[in-house]
Fold these 3 entries.
Entry 1:
Amino acid sequence: MKLGNAALRKVARAGAGRRRLQSLILALVTMGSVAAALLAGQLLAGSGSTFDQGFARQNGAHLTVQVDGSKVSAQQIAATRQARGVTALSGPYPTLLAEQVVTTSGFDVPSDLVLAPLTVVGRADPGGPVDDVSLVSGRWANAPGEIVLSNTVLDSARPGATLTFASSPGSPRLTVVGVADSVSATADAWVVPSEVTRLLPAAATPQQELLYRFAETATTAQMTANQAAITATLPSGAVLSAQTYLAVRQASTTGATEIIPPALATFGILGVVMSVIILAGTVGAAVGTGTRRIGIIKALGFTPGQVVRAYCMQALIPCAVGIVLGTSVGTAGATAVLAKAGGTIDGGGRSLTLWVEFAVPLGAAALIGLTALLVSLRAGRLGTIEALTSGRAPKTGRGRRTQRLLAATPLPRHLSLGLAGPFARPARTLALTASIAFGVLAVTLAVGVADSLNRATTDLTGASGASAVQVAPNGENPAPASQQQSDRVAAAIAADPGTAGSYGTANLQMPVSVASGGTNVIVYQGDSSWGHYPLVSGHWLSAGGQAVVPTQFLAATGTRLGDTVLLTYEGRHVPLTLVGEVFDTKQQGLIVMTESQSFSPAVPMGAFQIEVKSGTDVSAYVSRLTRAVESVGATVQASKGGTLAVVVILDAISALMTVLLVVVAGFGVLGAVILDTRERVHDLGVYKAVGMTPRQATGMVLASVGWLGVIAGAVGVPAGLLLHTVVMRLMGDAIGVTMPSQVLSVYDSPELALLVVGGVAIALIGALGPAGWAGRLRTATALRTE
């Protein structure tokens, strides 16, 4: 007689209810793995998509070129339209780099705030075949005295605000009439073309901006060839600077949130793998210890196929709950992270990727279902008579040879019995060891990622240790410090006996020959060898005329160490040779670092970083230095350090996922040892009848898993070290940087030893409950158990 589906569902629900601990384990691990996989999938799907979509929509400029208007004619510019690979050209647009632009009114910032130099472009309208500028608010400038600001200049920019161009003749005041977005970052502001001439300093010639699109643009090599084709068609020296869209894309996608997906995806994969291991072990144990139940339901009329379905459903019930909860948690987390990860292109956060919302839970369900099916097939193959007559104990002979070998050693008998126990169930032992190893691997990975991120995101240019002090020569005044203030502060620092070392820094915006607009330039004064960014290749600054740049700068501009770039400082070209490549995650990689000796006149320092001598009272040092520099308005404070928000977020995610995986591993140990102990309960009664004490019984159970913890630690720690290197390199690839050795090599010997011991801890803690139960079990009760 074949029973119906209603009876089948009843059997499955009853089986899941009888094994509540295993059901809880499956639900927890499934929830964690699905949540992590979904969050990682959404972040991976969202990385870079905002820029690409906006670039296509606005016909973004593949190449932005600034030319000297006095060296090139309109005919020569038009001829570049015929250069190899060019598909569209916009311009020329008159442009200038406006310095000393001051906020006047209408901004949510202090009045008279001096902005970084603005690239101002004269355009009659926002449209065109290249760089179709999108208005975010207001309208386009159509008369002198009006200006449209890029939405990247100030968050508080809005129509009606005013700016004063202090370096222009007559210090004209312009009214903001609109806020716009250029996906190509071709300008910081736009005015009518005639306005550029009015804003130019006396006797200056306006530059011309040319915007190009090309047929082949996928690689740096192709863009380098495209740029060379344009340069070759123009007179020598006419090209002042050029920037490819790859540099803009780099800046757009090099956000802190880009480092999260590789780590999160790894933890998600670990969770999925562990869920498969726990699922296989749990279903296998249910089949192995429930053979009599299988015989009964077969005797009642269930077919082999129905038995397989019943055990699959028994496993899938808690997993389905875990999938639903994990999808909810993962979606909520992805929504929160993506809301903060959106770029400026669409004026908002990134949206969820719909196919990921379906693919992850459906994939998890398919993987869990396949695992349950493969393990449950054994239940379908069991014959009815065989199932009804078989016991729960392992087959005769399993582990006996190991028991005899260990009995010949000097080990106490209860320990030798415990050590030999796992050999009776080799498949279960392998699954148990694997789950502990994955727990150790997760801890090893989380510790390494946290240490690496802390090293990677520590701004070494701003000393952050307990014995570090920072000085701002101009106090809290946003205006740049004067040379006199800078010199007075430097002299006071050098004169204090508690100073071990110091250097000054100045942050400026300057045009660079390999990029359009202003580029962030950090100028160092003094010996900065003790506080520079981690080096990837080359060497740190040692003389004037040298420059060090991050990996992203080299990739985006197509330059390499040994090349020369030109800065423009107060109307003079400053040639710098690239001598070093550094690791940087904070400045989006598009920065240039150089020595103060490169410039004339001198650059005033905006801040000083000080290393205080060992044993010096930092508070007393700060008070003493404050009195020495207060006459020039400088402020002194001990460095506070700090951690990037993204590091805090990733550390928290890693910690939570690690705790979850370790807890799941502990539950796996607990479930496996409970099954094993209950299977051997009659043997326990015999052992106690011949003299085994409760303490020895407890020790026997703990010994059966303790050595598995040693093996798991020995396997999990090296695997974690290898996975840490892989994950950190993937993080580097995500933000376009090369991870230096000091960021990758973060483990020390004592730490590794503790991680190995962690495997033993997971095993023993998970087994404590069943071991205590074995010790408390009465001899008569155990002997009566079938």
Entry 2:
Amino acid sequence: MRQPCATPPTSTAFLPLCRPIVRARIWPGTTPWCWARTSCTPRPKKTPRVSSRVFKGLDSFDDLNPGDLLVHRDYGIGRFAGLHHMDVNAVANDFLLIEYSGRDKLYVPADRMGLIQRFKGSEGVEPALDRLGGAGWASGKEKARKAIEKIAADLVEMYAYRKVTKGFRYDPPGELYHEFEATFGFEETPDQAKAIQDVLDDMDKSQPMDRLVCGDVGFGKTEVALRAAFRAASEGRQVVLLCPTTVLAEQHYQTFRARLAGFPVNVGLLSRFVPRPRQKEVLKAAASGQVDILIGTHRVLSSDVKLPNLALLILDEEQRFGVRHKEKLKALKKNVDVLTLTATPIPRTLQLSMSGIRELSIIETAPQDRKPVASAVLRRDDSVLRKVLEREIEREGQVFWVYNRVQGLERVAEYVRALVPTARVGMAHGQLSETELEDTMHNFWHGELDVLVCTSIVESGLDFPRANTLVVDQAQMFGLGQLYQLRGRVGRSDRQAYAFFVVPDAERLTPIAEERLRIIMDMDYLGAGFQVAMEDLRLRGAGNILGEVQSGHMCRVGLDLYLEMLEEAVGRLKGTPEAHTVETELTLGLPAHIPASYIEDGRERLRCYKTLTSAAGGAAREEAALGIRDRFGPFPEELRNFLAVLDFKQFLTELQVQKADVHINHVRLVWPDGQNAVQPERIVALTASMKDARMLPPAGLHLPLPSDVPFAEGLDRLRTALEGIRTQAGA
């Protein structure tokens, strides 16, 4: 646990004013300012994520509490009732208790935790618990499977079409490209440089690119898009950059024009900010090929937009476009390069990358001198908020004051003016006329306003380097993803930035609102977008992502299992060989667990169990075990047994053993009826070569374990003896 600082840092002088309310975040013995997250205690540098495990970001039970919903792959949705130490056949081991409908109870051995996932569904929707042995779970899974097959077919159809379509092949980057590259005013971070190279390599291929670039706000995704756009435009091809909001389109337009100044590339803008006469000029120029890069909102998807040489489509935050727009995008994507930029990717977007439908580049390295935004949750207090505004204005900075309803925004602006009468206050929301909104954003951009009172119209992608304080009014009314994106609007320079989430009263917060605020405070580090995206979907559901019908299926089986089934369906349709392995069911006749005397905290034991049982292989499990030993000391015998059993179980699963009884002096193995994993003559030879070994009809085997060596070593010897059967099974 992070320790409190001895003294507040000078750069956060006003943080003692904060009055934290989220009780779960207050550490014993600390002062309130220490709870408000600052950069005074540096976090350890985060290790890069491996892309093939990105989607599995929340597969641990770190915060699992009794009463939480779980999904068992075979038995359905139940309620977690704690970790229990039980004697079964005179042998004590640990079990997870899951309670089902009708007071049914399921005790899950610790080695089978890989079959369990936390249930993630729609916010505020409590699913019915399944009944053990009932047909409801199997029926729900089957309905979800059929619906998923339809989605997978659409995805694979697009995938197959793009695989056979020949895209435009570019010449190697020439002198003009390298000259443009040199005008970048910063040093690329390693992740950013790799993402740029990934995109350039994709553009070299004959088949169209479909790459997703994930990176936190301000981590350099726009520069990746600029390099790709310049390469396409410099070879006479056209580019479209599609943005979810007019304000973001305007800012991208200004950014592209500034970066491309001095190069023979024409940039056009289409949005409601652009007067109709000018729109006609842009449309005419685009149709004749004179516009190289066209930036705009969904307006660029209109039927009157003609781009004869279109080769690259860049999507900024694709998930924010509606279903109607996505259908038009689907048609547009078929034979052009597609580059998608996102800060907080939705899990389905990531799943497409995991399934091989799209390629994935991750930018996790923060730019040099970038500081995490110091964050705090505050009760409404006029004197505190007044000082927050005055301190930012005194250092010649600017403030975003965000209130998420157009109705009442004028009243909020008056409140801000009353707090600091000398402040220059502007107001922005989506219902202003184009001219009013453009003038307000222009004035704020040029420093002619101190405070911008606005709706979440500023949520996506906007870059105002002088704005380094954010006040989110009525923060409990915002979604988690919105809060994270809004916090990304500040801290875009080397100055320390601050975010204040203001709520009326802690006692009146709903549990979900308090959970959102707890998460946003916990995920204050740079590059937290993945975790926020996962938690956001868990809290708010997937209706606006998958569509209402698919959301219903997702809510029946849970998000993790839904996406797992989607990945499997895509793999089948793509012809990927499917592994028909069924996890071996173990019955243990010896103590094999993590003793409470070794790890006293039950939640910590649960976390260690999950880490060990979900490890991808022996090497990963060994690494996890070393981490446990470093923290808690040498392993007791029960834990050594548990680790040996997990390794042996993985081997038996590969050998297609259905059930195994593991005792201190012998092992019984049972294969499923009709299997072809082993040859009978090999089993006969094995039993003949081992004393006390015997066959157990119809498909079983009793094998002794040596008594002169420790249990783990005995399992290793038995595994060596069984290797011959495994070799024949793989023949």
Entry 3:
Amino acid sequence: MSNAIFQTPVAVNEPIKSYAPGTPERAELQKELKDSVAEHRDIPMYIDGKEVRSGKKIEIHPPHDRHKVVGHFYKGGKVEVSHAINAAMKAKHEWGRMPWEQRAAIFLKAAELLAGPYRAKMNAATMICQSKNVFQAEIDAACELIDFWRFNVQYAANEIFKNQPVSSPGMWNRMEYRPLEGFVFALTPFNFASIAGNLPASAALMGNTVVWKPSERQVYSAQVIMEIFMAAGLPEGVINLVYSSGQDCSDVIFSNKDFGGIHFTGSTDVFRTIWKEIGDNIHQYKSYPRIVGETGGKDFIIAHESADPIAVAVAMARGAFEYQGQKCSAASRAYIPSNLWPKVKEKLVDDLKTFKMGHVEDFSNFINAVIDERAFDKITSYIDNARKSPDAEIIAGGNYNKSEGYFIEPTVILAKNPTYVSMCEEIFGPVLSVYVYEPDKFEEMLDIVDQSSPYALTGAVFSQDRYSIVLATEKLTNSAGNFYINDKPTGAVVGQQPFGGARGSGTNDKAGSSWNLIRWVSPRTIKETFNPPHDYRYPFLG
């Protein structure tokens, strides 16, 4: 294993393509969408570099066209999980001892492949089965994932491996960054293909081997990610992709002595269950597993009386409703002073009236479908409750229909008290709850923002008054791991805003930074003395 440092390519953020009418990328993507839908994709698991097909086939339906079948994947069980662990452990020695720059080259090549020949295929897969419009797919499945793979290499080289101890005369002290002892389990969500591609890759870059289970709603694009890994030269068994249930994975993985860590993005309740299960089994493991998770959010916007009302309204529209609010960072609650509310409301409602909703193939649609029926039913229950509640009023949207796809209008709920249920609970859909307060209650509202939700992922303050910005920044210190001033609380960019939250939102290990990568190594300090002593006596003994 080598920690030698080479001059790594300087990472820069991947440019976002416009997909405007007449552009070559638009024509290429439209063709890929058409071809992909017609293909009926057959999606195997990948264990030890081999395609694995079980006897249980699961159909794949686009959320916006729920009766259409675009392919199927093969459901795994405990046997496949066990095989994936065995493959990961078999590959571990050679992969871990490979010079780090050779591992890095694989992920840099993967980034080039995604930026070029795989870009349209990746975006099309994300649009079809995660129901993202073209812009949301481009910034996620292409640009952010490319950025993760490139910047991770730079962080590993410049901020981790270069970090070496001081050596006194006559000795050489050095730090070796070893992979964890055991395998890493990557459990990834449906909503971001970039997260799905980064969680296993970041651990693998640092020398670990991985068992990767994506959300069943994301297997269509997960398979493309795996294709890219293999085309980039990833050795057999380094990342093993399985489609077993969460329960089957838990039963096998968390009882295995070689379990070394979990890289997780998903719900708070699931993460807490996993943490407890790991704790219950802690006596079985060779070492204490690394537990890294990014979970739920109840992300906020709070405006001061001095804020620009148009900027606030646009931040609410974009922050709450892009990708149907299915972002862990999406604005879900807003606190607006009464002096601004008439202008904010007018702009917000007018903008929502112009939102087009429908299939992803129509690039003029800003809103598409929510991910599945379970999500649809949960989200619409909040809308129905608000419609009946004396403490709430629906001032925009509120309609929904799942006859063709899981479509929910972007909905704004005006709450009559700041602790109304939709102001406090995570909804994870296109629902924004607003509370209007008196301008002289700004500091009191900051306390309510801090105390009325168990989460602490993202949040934003809008103000033209610097004293109020300082006050909000201070009082909301623990309320958001990513805090925005005069900007929406979504859209963190790799290399610019390392992402993660605390409290009920996770371990705040900041994806897209060295803070995350350092969790996937176990340092070893080595001291070499060139002229060791030949007498036990110290000078004080005379």
